[in-house]
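S1.2 Input.
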Amino acid sequence: MKKFTLGFIIGGVICSALTGFAVEYAVTASPFPIKVDGVAKSIEGYNINDSTYFKLRDVADAVGGFTVGFTNNTITISTSQAEPPEPTSDDEPITIHEGEVSQRRFAREGDTVIKADGTEVVLKKGPHGVLGEGQGVAPDLGLEIPTGFNKRVEAYKVFSGTTDFKDSTGKSVINAHYYVNKVTGEGHWSAEWMAMTSEPTTDGTFEYQLSEDKNWIWMGSEWIQMYVQDPTEEELQAVRDANGLN
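S1.3 Output.
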């Protein structure tokens, strides 16, 4: 593992007591680009007395291998991880095992998703600009966000992140939901679902009727989003039976 000399910058000016008097060092932004394993990273550096310093958390986010926290007025550094982050670049496609917990970047067009049955799906954007639209996969389900807090994306849960991650429509997923339609197996962020599907304009004709795109279900007297539901296997089977999907 590479070794780094890390400095933690607390203020804009550092004062040191040397031989009875204070010495002030001006802090300026480092002009040098940063690369990790040949991949450019956006890390803000600081030049102090001809030495370059970085924030610990910035380095943890970019390099991986350790996490940084602050508990009980103590800076904490942890090096324990289930597995190291998968090295990627902005241009290099990755393989995603659907639903498995992993620490990687968000899914992008050109990535390959391997479903539980072994089917491989190459992600592409659909007519509404949504990644994976109509492909029956949930590429970001199980994603463990590569930040110091390791927030995991799970269906029907709120994701509270610390970085401005965006979905394929350009919307931030901070405090967003990730929903999976259990009938189709397709998963998207809430803004992506809103962009690609809308409530049918005509009433349903029978209980459990699915809309044409299978993303809405007729329940008594109204259409509700199928993808926000978490049906039991018995309820799911009733939906399949009602719509001839067996």
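S1.4 Remarks. Helices lie at 56-63, 190-196, 233-243.
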